[in-house]
Amino acid sequence: MKRYDVLIFLINKYQLRSYLEIGVRESTTFSRINLEDKIGINPGGSTLSKVLSITSDQFFLQNDRKFDLIFVDGDHRSAQALRDLKNSLISINDNGFVVVHDTMPHNLEYTQPNWCGTVFRAVQEINQDPSISLHTVNTDHGVSILSLEPSPPGPLYKDFFDFMDNLSLCLNIVTPENLAHIKFYGK
Ligand SMILES: C[S@@+](CC[C@H](N)C(=O)[O-])C[C@H]1O[C@@H](n2cnc3c(N)ncnc32)[C@H](O)[C@@H]1O
C-alpha cells in the first residue's frame, strides 16, 4: 500500500470532495487524486495545472477556505512540518482528515531532511492535543492520519531511540489490512 492508496481509500469511503496537497514534486500522488476540487502547493515552479508555486506558509497566510482532505508532504523539518500540520488542522472541514507522510523513519539515517526528516517529532507534538486523534498506517515510510476526534494525549518520548522503542504506541500504528476497520467519526 502506498501513501496515495491511503488517500484514495479515505476519499472513497468518506466521500471526500476537496483536496489540498502540500509538496507535490513530480505529481506522483497529486495526479492520482481524481477530484475536480484539488489544489497543490510546490515552491520553485511547477507547470502542472492546479499547482501553485508558493510555500505552504504563503498559501495559509492568504487561505480562507476549508478542505475535506489535506496531504502534508512538504518540508520535512519538524518546525515546518508542525506549522503545516497546525495550519492544516484549522483548514479541514469538521469530518475531514489531515494525512502526513514519512512519519516512520527506519533508522537515524532516515531522519535527514531529504528523507523522512523529523516529521515524527511534529506528529508527537500534535498528538498531545486531546481534540485530535492519530492513526498511522505502517506502510510507505509511515502514513499518519489525523482527525478532529477526542483522544487521550499520546506518549512523550525522550529521543529518537526512545521513539523507536515505543513506535507502536507513539504513532498508534495500524496495518494496511486494518485500515478499513478504523471507525473514523463513528462510521
Ligand atoms: C517529498 S516531496 C513530495 C512528494 C509528493 N507529495 C508525492 O507524494 O510524490 C516534497 C516536496 O515538498 C516541496 N516543499 C519543500 N518545502 C516546501 C514548503 N515550504 N511548502 C510547500 N512545499 C514544499 C519540495 O519542493 C518537494 O517538491
> What is the overall pLDDT average?
96
Ligands, ions, cofactors: S-adenosylmethionine
Please compute the radius of gyration using only Cα atoms. 15 Å
Distance between the termini: 22 Å
Q: What is the helix fraction of residues, given as a range?
A: 25-40%
Largest sheet: 8 strands, mixed
Protein name: Class I SAM-dependent methyltransferase
InterPro entries: SAM-dependent_MTases_sf (IPR029063)
Pfam family, one: Methyltransf_24
Q: Which key features would you list for this structure?
A:
binds S-adenosylmethionine, globular, 187 residues, eight-stranded mixed β-sheet, Class I SAM-dependent methyltransferase, alpha/beta, SAM-dependent_MTases_sf
